[in-house]
Write a structure and sequence with these properties.
2 copies of one chain form a homodimer. Chain A is of the alpha+beta class. The radius of gyration of chain A is 23 Å and the shape is globular. A 7-stranded antiparallel β-sheet of chain A has the order 17-12-16-13-19-20-18, with helices on both faces. The first copy, chain A, has a 5-stranded antiparallel β-sheet with strand order 5-6-10-8-9. In chain A, strands 1-2-4-3 form a 4-stranded mixed β-sheet, with helices on one face. In chain A, 35% of the residues lie in helices and 21% in strands. In chain A, a hairpin with a 2-residue loop joins strand 14 (277-278) and strand 15 (281-282). In chain A, helix 13 (360-371) runs antiparallel to helix 14. Chains A and B meet through strand 9, helix 6, helix 8 and helix 16 of A and strand 9, helix 6, helix 8, helix 15 and helix 16 of B.
């Protein structure tokens, strides 16, 4: 167990020399810095907080913290859902939110270089001006790219284009020693030693501080069509999913959700777009599917075949959104699921499990079968196309301790079932400190020991983001 | 520096208990096990060699070797080009060549599970029966998949589909302690702790022994067209390459080669397909390009636009191969470049550098500019689409020591230039022991120290594939 020191006045003075006027302490610290978007994991204030501006000053700050064994936690926009950016051991919090410059495009190699605090939304709209697409598309558009890389964020388009990992070419990193390193390069393929780049991706700020990223872009597909597909119940909805793969339809996005989730989202937005009843039958669940491509004719052929397939599989209807306005409407509801749930729920926790797509149906059937054992409600939606499910436990009347106790029993059961189906604890939100035990239980001792050894290899004094991923405090 | 012990009679007896009748020693060892396909790095016989058959027996063998500090080197088909599978420290060599079963397909998730000794060629033809494609397509079709994963092999189709790394979902690994671990899972996205899976990919057998692989497949594209494009010289040929990206043509493969290489390959095959003269102009270099897709009309539109573009850029002609027989002919020559060079050359070494695609032209201009300083000939070809160049130093009359000395000076110069262009030492062949110094020189101390720390984290007794990647003997 690592021992940490407190941030003394002497250390504050040393930090002030590096970033004059920017070392916040006590009540001057932004209270949001104590938490992320999943408040169930508690609030932990840092002893000092700094909005950093450059690789060099981060390096200088970390050298001081490493020498004095002060915990350092890095935070982007704070949109995480597993406590990854919460400074649970106190110490110094570094916010990258002002390192938000899109530095340069390389249009001959389709690359963009950014600071880590650039928001996903800002890169998306900027890249579009060049006719380019940054394929990763997590639901939370106001996350930073540094945060996305740190959790290997997935999102809607992962089913066709892959997750964030597939779009990171290189990064500048400040190591826990304060040294500045560069991992990866601008090139698209490499066999040049262990992939330190891939080790950093998804390491949730525990191995180094990302201070610059070079990301791969693709030409923006010219055409896009979305389908809204209502089903009578979740079972018939989900059992259709593997047919998309079997028929080689290659959707760009393939989402599912229960009606309850849709309703809370549409209430949150104040606009209802999805049908609630089809031919007198109450809708129970939906698929929301997008197809993209450069050729409208071949896209329409795929859409027709897909529509025929889902109707054969029991879909109640197929609504086609083929104009930008209709597509925007259809996806607006999907983008506000979490906000919708949050607004209507006092106590909330979530599971971000990922299972093979042909195991989604039996997995959700299992989840439903144990729901009655608990006092909270279970609501689910997710990325059907890649098996990544978001299962929310929601209560407005339970006591916090009882809620936490019951959720822990529930989570252990469903993670165990997911593991049985060759799934993993998190598809895209990460482990943070909220899911350390579940990760350890499901991966087993050998993998956790290797991860801890790697953590030691990078961070001998264990100062960077303590208490996360594979190391409990 | 690690200290190793010799393989004693007692140890042979212990190994015999695990794999009776399969522990080869002395003259019973296959002499090929002393080398790979690049003999310039010398021959090193192991003290014992075993053709292994299962995860469990590999685990038992490695436990004995770890306890006794005996080096263990794993070898697939031995087609490597950097000495990665050469047992430079002696000890025990494990050949996976008989672990060659394609275990199962999962057609709902488009996955295949294989033993590590399955040959690339065998998986390709087997997957085709299911209408599926394993996209990685290294030139050497008789390499094992275990070897491909260990070097993150790239190949012709990497420009569109990515390298081997992008197609590995999970693996079973015997660690240097003899423990059996499982990295990754069947799922397509994950944020569940450090990516031990990605660390293993490209680690050249130094961190663990891969004993099973689950790989991702894609639906076989329905249509394929190849173009043979002759140019007067290498410069005009290469300067055309970035235009494919700028115009968003997305070729499946985009190869370049000098005429000399083509001639030796066609002589090796005994069949000449490519034009040597166009309209009275002597051809100096070629592009060989493939486009694939599911829709012939849109494919033809792309081919027309690409043909127009290259003719505008100075191509002498565009020959279209649009039947399986013509496509096979065009690519046969490309697949035999190395064999063609080998047959005509006594002393051979190679550089597998990768640079951003818009730096290929200035990089090759630099290489040409220093060629006259040396007594060997320089021949080059490579994957123009992703910047991965194969530059061969060839001599039939130099003394070995002088050749090696001059090659070292040459390589240092061109690696330095590649690094200046943000390139890396190896695009797909790996570091092995032939390129350790070049990797260390170009990556610098911090990255190499992190790699060495990771090696220690996995292999405290340093028994697995000693003297490779980041650790010199």
């Amino acid at each position: 167990m690592a021992e940490y020191n407190k941030v003394t006045t002497e250390i504050i003075n040393e930090l002030e020399k590096i970033v004059p006027g920017r070392v916040m302490t006590g009540e001057n610290i932004n209270p949001d810095y104590a938490r992320d978007e999943m408040p169930i994991y508690g609030k932990h204030m840092p002893e000092a907080a700094i909005e950093v501006l450059s690789t060099e000053e981060i390096s200088a700050i970390i050298k001081i913290c490493n020498l004095n064994r002060i915990p350092v936690t890095v935070r982007g926009a704070g949109t995480g859902l597993a406590g990854g950016a919460v400074p649970v051991a106190g110490g110094v919090l570094l916010s990258t939110i002002k390192m938000n410059k899109i530095i340069s495009y390389d249009l001959e190699n389709l690359l963009v270089t950014v600071e880590p605090g650039v928001l996903l939304n800002d890169l998306a709209s900027d890249a579009a001006k060049h006719g380019l697409l940054y394929p990763p598309d997590p639901g939370e558009k106001f996350a930073t790219l540094g945060g996305n890389v740190s959790t290997n964020a997935g999102g809607m388009r992962a089913v066709k284009y892959g997750a964030t990992r597939d779009y990171v070419r290189s990064m500048t990193v400040v190591l826990p020693t304060g040294e500045i390193a560069r991992f990866g390069s601008s090139v698209s393929k490499t066999s040049s030693g262990y992939s330190l780049l891939n080790l950093m991706i998804g390491s949730e700020g525990t191995l180094g501080v990302i201070t610059e990223l070079t990301l791969k872009l693709i030409p923006q597909p010219k055409e896009l069509i979305s389908l809204v597909i209502p089903f009578e119940d979740l079972e018939s909805c989900i059992s259709t999913v593997p047919k998309f793969t079997l028929n080689h339809f290659r959707p760009q996005a393939l989402e599912f959700f229960e009606k309850e989730i849709l309703i809370s989202s549409e209430e949150y937005l104040g606009k209802a777009v999805f049908p609630r009843v089809c031919d007198g039958i109450e809708v129970g669940a939906y698929l929301l599917v997008s197809f993209d491509g450069d050729d409208m004719d071949s896209l329409l052929t795929t859409v027709e075949k897909a529509a025929e397939m889902v109707l054969n599989e029991g879909a109640l209807d197929v609504l086609i959104a083929d104009t930008p306005a209709k597509i925007k409407d259809a996806w607006a509801a999907r983008s506000s699921f979490l906000e919708g749930i949050e607004e209507q729920t006092k106590l909330l926790d979530e599971c971000d499990v990922v299972v093979p797509t042909n195991k989604i149906a039996p997995f959700l059937t299992y989840v439903k079968s144990i729901e009655a054992e608990f006092d909270f409600k279970v609501k689910s939606f997710g990325h059907a196309g890649d098996g990544n499910l978001h299962i929310y436990t929601c209560s407005n009347d339970m006591e916090l301790d009882e809620f936490k106790k019951q959720v822990d029993v529930f989570m252990n059961k469903i993670y165990e079932k997911a593991t049985e189906f060759k799934g993993l604890v998190s598809g895209e939100h990460g482990i943070g400190f909220g899911k350390i035990d579940y990760l350890a239980n499901t991966l087993g001792d050998i993998n956790i020991r290797l991860m801890q050894n790697i953590k030691n290899a990078f961070d001998p004094n264990m100062i960077l983001n303590p208490g996360k991923v594979c190391y409990k405090l």
